[in-house]
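Look over both lines:
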Amino acid sequence: MTMSAAGGLGELRMTVWAAALLFGAIVAPAAARARPPVPPRFSAMTAAQREETLAPIRRLASVATRLERVTRHFLGTPYGFSPLGEGSGIDPDPLLRFDRVDCLTFAETSIALAAAPDPPSLLPILEDIRYAAQPPTFQNRNHFVEAQWVPNNVLKGWIRDISAQVAPGEVRVATKVLGPQVWRDRRGLGDLPLDGDDVPRGTFRLDYVPLAFLQAHPRRIPSGTLMFVVRENYLSSPTRVSHVGFIFQTSRGPMVRHASEVYRRVVDEPLSVFLAQNAAYRRWPVVGLALFEVRLPVARIDRLASVSTPRR
């Protein structure tokens, strides 16, 4: 993924480089289960076929249903370490692609596909989610989940914190202090080309629901929820978030749909299995999940669509 410090359980993918450490899927493989047929992947479609597939999805009123329909077409897509970049410069990977995803780019691209009213608006919307501001440069990218990705996308209207809604009275707060000294003392992100001046400064907060509550009440999580895995605070790490994915309530029970470095592809995994695996980690313990509703900010989408131009 390219969460840079934004964005699994081993899937620490936070940015092109931060991804490997910060967003790998540290979820151990579960036993194979019978699954419904996998629909055709976006990567196997032509642009015209993708548009034919997306057109009826755009007409759906429910954002959660749009996300479920969109993400189906990523199932089986290979996992790729930090597959998106700026097309040139520090990270020359493409701004948009369908043949590789990591946990964060899977989430970002899926939200953009669910929101875009037409093909030309897809890239401007994706950039609006991935970057704090224009132009889409490496320095402007939302590299850190608590400090950049979440607050910027809350401010823009793309997501809304629902942790307290899901677990009234049970929410805890994860804090993370960032600044030049923390950045110099970090471990595992030595290849991320940001200096102290590029790193957000301050104390950042992220609400989360403890694992034990989620294990006891898995059906309280609304279908379509965007979830972030939150870990213990280690001073050597510039983030407490290690993975991201979607939770869907299905006929097979609550499922996590995510791009997993362990499975090497996008998979559906029972939420019960996912939570049990996370509860078992000892080297960097997981404390819970931060839960967000994905939203479609209509005025913002209209503005982005009005200035969109086809880009290669």
